[in-house]
Amino acid sequence: MRWGMLINLVKCVGCYSCVVKCEQEHFLPPSVLFGRILISETGEYPRALKHVYPVLCNHCKEAKCVDACPTRATQKREDGIVWVDSDKCVGCRYCLMACPYQVRTYYDEEKEYYPGQGLTEFEKLGRQLHPYQTGTVLKCTFCMERIDSGIKRGLKPGVDRDATPACVITCPSKARYFGDLDDPESEISMLVRKWRPVQLRPEYGTEPSVLYVIG
Amino acid sequence: MIQSRPYEFMVSYTPQTQWIEKGGVKLWLAFFFIELGAGMFFIASLLDNVLAMSIGWFLCAVLGGGFHLLYLGKPLRFWRMAFSSGWKTSWISRGIIFVSFFLGFGFIHILLMQLSIRYTGLVVIADVFAFLTVIYGGFAMNYVNGIPLWNTALLPILYVVSGLWGGAEVTLGLALGSGGMVVGKAVEEWIRILLIGYLLLVPVYLMSVRYTSSTGQVSVRYMMRSQWSAVFWIGVVILGMIVPLVAVINSMITNLETISVAFLYSAILSGLIGDLAMRYLILKCGVYGPLIPSSDTA
Predict the structure, then answer these.
(1) CATH 1.20.1630.10 fits B8-288, yes or no
(2) In this predicted structure, which of A68-77, A174-183, B110-119 has the lowest mean pLDDT?
(3) DSSP track, B46-75
(4) Cβ-Cβ contacts under 8 Å, B13 against chain A
(5) What number of other Cβ atoms are within 10 A of residue B195's Cβ?
(6) What does the alpha-carbon distance between residue B212 and residue B65 come to, in Å, rounded to a whole number?
(7) B292 with A136: Cβ contact below 8 A
(8) Which of A25, A108, B86, B111 has its CA at 20 to 30 Å from residue B124's CA atom?
């Protein structure tokens, strides 16, 4: 089993819903982002092109960050999800350096969304649900809590909303697909065969599990 | 071209910041002192100079180790780096183990030397770990394939040469200070060889990175033609290469005893500043290539 995500860039409108939903789902502190939208332009008028790439941790098959971690805080599960055990992380940031996609964040200090005005009720709740440790590295987990609890309840990730990553279910243009890349019968595998997506910077040899349909 | 605004992150060439900006400066100093100290111990042990060995050990343990610990987000968990299975794949973990063994065996060797006891096997083991201590930083950076400036086999070699050269320079300074001309002359031979190696390696390293990829080209240009060009040309080239070269040529033409001690000390200090500058630029100018197509990076 290998969880993966397919992002159809033809459908993506760059609305940032995925980024905002991720922040909300994980109660992320200010300046910590698990997902981003990269926007660039190529060409010149009248043949200019705008490129919109939602990026997140690629949960690489050959993850550089896993091998780089000196304490084995960064681990790879059997289902391919790469996560950080904050209790083991020493904050050396070698994983951050090793990731060629730069999708990890070092959580250096606690900040409030409204500096000097104390924590909002939302932030207080977030600190209880997700007690992120300062001095450690944070990253996208493919919403593994949702996946795990969904599977326990007999749900199927990628099919049932409650077992699917938040960024996938919130996408208003349905540009994201999630599922088991190793299962040839899964929707994502069939779409991979149909659309022939590409990996981001495959030359790094990391075999990302997030794939992009370019058009 | 180089990322200067937040929205250009990974769209333009993006410099790494975690290992050099803000608290990252501590890591720069940590690598410098670790390698300088271990290099000094290595050179001094070949000459049985206990004072230089002790100072090298101190630099490595207190300054190098101290800055390393200060850099960590969770310094009290540092032991996990040595006592996990991380050493199988992680160069940082391996480095901690090398440093620990070097400091352990080195300490015992220095202690026994004070008692006029010399175990050849012990000094060989200490030297092996001192050498591994000098080289591990280069391998740790070499592993980062997103940064072409680091991802070259020449980087560990450059770090070994500069670490040993820096160590030899400080050992020479100590020998001059204590009037040990015999040790001074022996170290000077090492300095000549290492300096020639360094003078050859720096341009070859930069040229090889320059022709590796467009990101490598940007890194080298960032180093030599941006706001950091003064650090490169004054720090690395003039202070780190030309001044020590003049001192070495001078000592070859005349004699070590006849050269002004003040000039020699200036050349040693100049060489160390050059080494620091080179290490700073290697960290500062390490840039990641853009992830998506963009006109700015075409």
Answers:
(1) yes
(2) B110-119
(3) HTT-HHHHHHHHHIIIIIIHHHHHHHSSSG
(4) none
(5) 20
(6) 34
(7) no
(8) B86
How many angstroms separate the CA atoms of A53 and B290, rounded?
A: 12
Q: Calculate how close chain B gets to A201, using CA atoms only, in Å.
A: 7
Out of B16, B92, B292, the one facing A53 most closely (by C-beta) is B292
The ipTM is 0.93
How close is the nearest chain B Cα to the Cα of A13, in Å?
16
Tokens of B133: 């201590």
Q: Sheet containing A3-8: which strands, arranged edge to edge?
A: A176-180, A3-8, A210-213, A198-199
Q: How far is B137 from chain A (nearest CA, A)?
A: 12
Determine how many CB atoms are found less than 10 A away from the CB of residue B77: 19
A213 pairs with which residues across the strands?
Answer: A8
Q: Which of B9, B71, B80 minimises the CB distance to A71? A: B80
Give the angle subtended at the CA of B43 by the CAs of B37 and B49, to the nearest 5°: 95
State whether residue A76 is helix, strand or coil.
strand
pTM of the model: 0.94
- Res B184: pLDDT: 80
DSSP B107-119: HHHHHHHHTT---
